[in-house]
Structures are given as C-alpha cells and as structure tokens.
Amino acid sequence: MVKADAYGLGMNRVVAALLPEQPWAFGVAAVAEGEALHRCGWRGPAIVFAPIAPGEYTRAVAANLTLCLSDVEAVQRWVAAGRSAGQPVAFHTEIDTGMGRAGFSWSEAAEWGAAVSGIAGSDARWEGCFTHFHSADEPVLAPADQQWQRFEQALRSLPPPQDGVQRLIHAANSAAALRRPEYARDLVRPGIFLYGGEVGAESRPRAVASLRAGVVLVRDVPAGTTLGYGATYQAARSERWATLGIGYGDGLRRAMGPAGGEVLIRGKRAPIIGRISMDVTVVNVASIPDVVPGDVATLIGRDGNAEIRLDDVAVRCGTISYEILTGLGPRLPRVYDRL
Length: 339
Known about the structure:
By secondary structure, the protein is α/β, with parallel strands linked by helices. Helix content is 26%, strand content 24%. It has helices spanning 3-7, 11-18, 31-39, 57-62, 72-85, 109-120, 142-157, 174-179, 310-316, 321-326; strands at residues 26-28, 46-48, 66-69, 89-96, 104-105, 124-130, 168-173, 187-189, 211-221, 226-227, 233-234, 239-244, 262-265, 268-273, 281-284, 296-303, 306-308. The strands form three sheets. Strands 1, 2, 3, 4, 5, 6, 7 and 8 form an eight-stranded parallel β-sheet that branches. Strand 6, helix 7 (142-157) and strand 7 form a beta-alpha-beta unit. Helix 5 (72-85) runs parallel beside helix 6 (109-120). 38% of the residues are buried.
C-alpha cells in the first residue's frame, strides 16, 4: 500500500525501493494517486481501494487503473466507462464483513454476486474479492476471526468465474498478515508495518522514518520569562532554551507540548516547553551542556543510545502512527538512505 504519498514518506522513492521485491500490485486510495503511481514508472496493476466519485470513472479507465467496487451501480458505471473507451477493465469487489465504510453485504452475496457477474459479462474482468479487518491489531482477535468466517461464507455464495480463472482472494492487512497468517490467501496488503508502525502490542518493526530538525537559536533566559502563545510556560529559574526550526506547519502535532513531548539532542532528552508554533518549537536544554545553533534535534528516531519511537509519539498525542506519518508536511525535506 502506497496511498497518501506512501504514508507521507514519498511515493516515488518508496515505490523505487520496493520494486526489487517484485510486488504483484501497488494499492492507492484515489485516481490521482494511481496516476502518480504510473508516473513513478510502475506498469503493473494499480488498485484504487477507496470508492471514487461517479465523474472519475472515465479518468480511471484512461489511467489503466483497477477499481474496487462496493455496489451494483458502481459496477455498471465501470463497465460502461470501459465500453465507451473501447478498453477492457478489471475490478475487485469489496465485501463488508464489519468495517462498514464500503463494500457489498457479506450476507447477501448470492444476490449481488449474480448481478455483478451478469453486468460484467465479457467486457470486464472480475479479478478479485477482498474484505478488510477492523480490529486485527487489537489484543483480542475474535472479531477478526468472525469477519473471516463471514468472508468465507460470502465467497462460497458467489457464482463461479465465467472465464474459469479463479478470482484473487485477499483480506490480510499488516496486522492480520503477521498475527493471523492463515488468513493470507492469494495476496496480502501490508501498509503501516512497512513504514515502521506497530500492528499489535507484540510487534516491533524496525524503525523506518526519523524526524529531525535543526537548532536555530539558543537563549539563556531569567526566571519569570514567559514563552509562546498564551504564555503557558514560565521559567521557574534561569534556564537555557533552544529554538528548533519545525512547527505545526510542518506536521508536528501541537499536542506534543502539553502531552510532555520531548526531543533528543546530543543523545539526551530535552522537554518541549510552551505551545508549539507554526514554524518553531522551543525545548529546555538546561541539562544538555554546549548546545549550539546547528545541532540536530531528533523528534522521532535514534540519537546515540536514546530513541523516540514512532508509536511512542502517536500514543503521547492520543492518535495513531498513520496520522503522525501522513501529517508530515511538504515543507519538510525528505532525505533517503537505503540500509
């Protein structure tokens, strides 16, 4: 999965890094992302997993994308768009087993399956069926097991492929692929785990992304000095503050300040103080001697023997690793290194 600009890390470079692994396809969430994927040089299947607007079907045909469809009307639009362009099209049907946001009903598979098969005919290839687990990363896996049972029941109710070629079956996201490998059928859909995010308490992926910023100013301030909008922080004694060239305009969460956020400088921890501004963040470096402008502060990643993990930041901000990564703004330069 390389949607949302490869989870915020840059689709072009991520796709280039994954090509040697010879994936069968890449997954995106929008037609524009599928077009961007082809601009990266990918010529294999590009699958759009989210429903798209009715006006985008012609564009999707022109881009040679594979759509994931969730209702009979969408199948009709997709087949009609392909016929109009004189181009064969392929699609996967999503089966809703409990996620609720899209998909055909698992309990009505016989009815909609017959309708989809009749509409597709010989003009469109019904290439695959899939479902999506809503809780495969939770401590208790009973809900995922129930979804799998529903999925299998739905598959048994579908008409056989008209061309005799078996449809591709897939259900396992990162969490299910690691925690319920028996649910990995023809394909798996790794996402956040590829980018260093945890998918369950027992998972410890290798860190992939680091977030760093430069120290741009160091000040010694007397007791009573206030800091930031709202003056929510006041120095209790003489302190040394370091200003970092990063703020919420770059995707750094404002919640990091009041939540006790910290950074690493010279392998030591420094607390974030005051409110994070759009362009700068201030940390207290009284316990780190000799900090100077040009030093590097690590907000996610390792510095010496100390580390701030991606999921640590997410938990501190009351969110998930996906949101931390996809929120990193375009103003942040991306520096790539293949280990």
